[in-house]
Amino acid sequence: MDSPVYNCFVDRDKMDAAIQDLGPKELSYTELQELKQLARQGYWAQSHALWGKVYQRLIRDIPCRTVMPDASVYSDIVGKIVGKHSSSYLPLPEFVDNTQVPSYCLNACGEGAVRKILLCIANQFPDISFCPALPAVVALLLHYSTDEVECFEKACRILACNDPGRRLIDQSFLAFESSCMTFGDLVNKYCQAAHKLMVAVSEDVLQVYADWQRWPFGELPLCYFARVFDVFLVEGYKVLYRVALAILKFFHKVRAGQPLESDSVKQDICTFVKDIAKTVSPEKLLEKAFAIRLFSRKEIQLLQMANEKALKQKGITVKQKSVSLSKRQFVHLAVHAENFRSEIVSVREMRDIWSWVPERFALCQPLLLFSSLQHGYSLARFYFQCEGHEPTLLLIKTTQKEVCGAYLSTDWSERNKFGGKLGFFGTGECFVFRLQPEVQRYEWVVIKHPELTKPPPLMAAEPTAPLSHSASSDPADRLSPFLAARHFNLPSKTESMFMAGGSDCLIVGGGGGQALYIDGDLNRGRTSHCDTFNNQPLCSENFLIAAVEAWGFQDPDTQ
């Protein structure tokens, strides 16, 4: 069998050791579904020649603007920018944010070529303001390109994708930052044990999640990253979330029970990813990634848009050089020990709850809206104090000193749309929990059991369309809510009975029972299993109320 032919930028010994080449294979162009399976299986992953051909074909099929930079453009830019300078000493574009060029199996000439290509891309794409993933992408593509120009053209085509329904590489700080928040939301829902560990050992948990793109783009060894990139080119951005979640799951499995320090957990994860071959194979990593039953692409896009909107409202659209991760208020900073006062929960317990809320609201600080000890035991007063605030946090303490509550995604004023009748509203971001005698959180049943819902046949057949940032002509310019029940083909309404309020009672969760029921005098309540949250009773099934509080989420800049 002939040895694989590498370009002049690849270190042959390193490449032979990193990825075994079993010779050429053929790949006729197939339907997307078959291509997905071949990418996941690594069909072309053991043939260097075929790998290069597949990349060429997949990237060529990315829809782009009509005119793309070519060999003559690259030659002109190199002559003007690089000149006679040594490529190994060329500065990297500012948009890579001090990200180092991963060498993988490149030789010194190859590493210099990556720097030249990045500078040429910066010249051709002046609108790119933040793209720390790009050095890894260019370095990978250079392994499988015949020369610098081909690598440059491939990278440009990925960056110039103009399909509004297809997201590839983040090119702005706003997109990158909102992706970090979205990843944090996904960890909170799909890796709860790992999230609990991160919250326990990290002063700033979002600082840990801010590295999530760095794990695949730069830290993974070449043979792992190339396999991930294969599937990414075929299936899109959602694959990156899957792989990063799988990495975190494996990290938690390996490191659970071992001491972790808050100042080293970020580096510990990076070290784990670099040495991942000691723990799991590329096949097992992808297997774990695709075993995670994530939200649909549409729902993740809605979540990303909601996070972007929250950042824009706070004026966080570019990186602040003097402040790490801009103006974020992290869990330990949002709940100030000296300012926080509650008759029901401690500062530590409130921080635990705050670690569960969506990332866009973890930017905020808790604001006491209602306290039965201050405002009286009146449901009408509860509504009056809470209306105009979205979301809210409900806390209940029983006379037996049990503590439970609910995160409620929607303004209580929505209850008025039912004409005085009791009607359910809210979204799948709602959850219920108990703190005493033990901590337990119950999320929307569909999150852990997505088999309960299937896309309607017409929706499944439709092509992916870009999502509007506003709902038709709604003057409030509101997003279509993330995890709105109407987005899901549910077997019955009992799986979407999130919250309801009338003059004589307040209900959270429904179907077969109620997660929480509180009477109009805020005196008595009951709790049981319900279909919406598939929960156990949150405290004694019938209880007397000692105290009720409602908390809102306040932007610290408005204080």
UniProtKB/TrEMBL annotation:
GO terms for biological process: cellular response to oxidative stress; neuron projection development. Residues 343-554 form the TLDc domain. PROSITE patterns: TLDC (PS51886). It is found in: Cell membrane; Cytoplasmic vesicle membrane; Presynapse. The keyword Nucleotide-binding does not apply. One of its GO terms (molecular function) is GTPase activator activity. The keyword tRNA-binding does not apply. It is a peripheral membrane protein. It comes from the Eukaryota. Keywords: Cell membrane, Cell projection, Cytoplasm, Cytoplasmic vesicle, GTPase activation, Membrane, Phosphoprotein, Synapse. Gene3D superfamilies: Ypt/Rab-GAP domain of gyp1p, domain 3 (1.10.472.80). Transmembrane segments: none annotated. GO terms for cellular component: cytoplasmic vesicle membrane; plasma membrane; presynapse. Its main location: membrane. InterPro entries: Rab-GAP-TBC_dom, Rab-GAP_TBC_sf, TLDc_dom. May act as a GTPase-activating protein for Rab family protein(s). Involved in neuronal projections development, probably through a negative modulation of ARF6 function. Involved in the regulation of synaptic vesicle trafficking. Interacts with ARF6. This is TBC1 domain family member 24. It comes from Chlorocebus sabaeus.
